[in-house]
Amino acid sequence: MNFFKIISFFACLIVLAPVVAQSVEPVILYDETVAEYLPPNNGAGPLWCYGSPLVVRSGERVFISVMETGKDAKPYSNTRWQILERTDSGWIKVLVENKYQQREPCPIAALSEDQLIISSHPEIRRRSDRADEKASFCKDILLSVPLDKIKSPPDAIRPPWPGDFEFTEHSYRGLAANKNTNEILLFSAISGKPDQYFMYRSAEGEWDAQGWIHFPVRGCYAQSAIQDKSAHIMAVGDIVEPVQEWWNYKKEQTGRVWDYVFRRLFYTWTPDITKQQFCESIEIDNVDATAGYIQNLDLWLGANQSVYLLYTKRTVQNAMMRDKFFPNMKLTISLECVELRKGKIQRRFTLAQGGEGLETPAPSYARFHATPDGNLYVVASESGANWIQQIHPTQGEKVAIPFKHPFSTFFTATERGGSDKSNYLDMFGYGPKQNTLRYACVNLQ
Hints:
Layout: H1 3-16, E1 27-36, E2 55-58, E3 61-69, E4 79-87, E5 90-96, E6 108-111, E7 115-120, E8 123-126, E9 136-138, E10 141-146, E11 155-157, E12 167-168, E13 174-178, E14 183-189, E15 196-201, E16 207-213, E17 219-227, E18 230-237, E19 239-240, H2 244-254, E20 260-261, E21 264-270, E22 282-286, E23 293-301, E24 306-314, H3 319-325, E25 332-341, E26 344-355, E27 363-370, E28 376-382, E29 385-392, E30 399-401, E31 410-412, E32 424-430, E33 436-443
Antiparallel strand pairs: 1-33, 2-3, 3-4, 4-5, 6-7, 7-10, 8-9, 9-12, 10-11, 13-14, 14-15, 15-16, 17-18, 18-21, 19-20, 21-22, 23-24, 24-25, 25-26, 27-28, 28-29, 29-30, 31-32, 32-33
């Protein structure tokens, strides 16, 4: 065997060698209460905007947007945003809104010029002069503050929304930013319209694109991402129960006069938002036939135009519906991941599944987390435990995160919000005490 054949032989071995998942040993650095909150009783809550980021990591600095309810403020717009930063002496308030004028929590993001962006949707006026009026008209703006002057008053950025648009307190809005390209994507519900309207700001700070986002039914709580003008959105259908028999039964059992269902999952994208509107949406999953339940959880952009979607799926919404209409069906819940490329589904895989007839614990919530070495992980909660698992470039084993009080619902610092890829996993969520918000930092190295 000559020299060149030997080199070729070993080169083939390297190419054919399997990629081994990198093991992690989670070490909890911080696990602490961030704030207490008063429930706003306005239909939203501190984590209501779960599709958009509330925690941002910029280098060694971590910021959180926290909803505060005004004790004497009248719903719906009875909260304000607070920006908290973790310092060596703990969490401090660095910015606070001067009025209680928001219904929903206010997402935040970071940009490359070391700016923090706040998505604000303040009330302008109540819709009528009635004493019992709760609904209001609002404006939709961004606020910007330099990180090196984080306590200075933020500057207003006013996207050029069409002049005839009216915003209400139910914005269902989304915010995505890319720290590397300095791009911003935002969208919001418009009064009287079934679809949402988007605005795109380029790296040069120009609002270069706008238009409608269409789904077959109303899509809400959307996750979104922007990178080099390529934009991606995942949303879940949020509509009134369409099956009259089911609606009547639920009303009879619960006494509730309204009922919204979440059974269809959609994804849409555009390769260049400045040249092409969002494409016709792709239906990722559908549990209409069995009165199921889907919750969209996270979206991540990988290399080679790959996109990962994360969601949970229940066979039937709850035991009450199963017992009445699907008595022979097992009530199970699964954690699902879908990989797409250029708008085409490449593969689907189930990460966890539990429920009736299964000996495995049922997953309840999850997020993505990417590290600087190019690995993508899923962080999940299930039956009183949290775990982390590598899924890209190869799939590894689940590793427990040893929290004394595991998180149930939580946010992570995501690249979709301009956070850095990091070996530190930042988690923000509820508890463990009632009406408290909590932060944890986990070292994954």
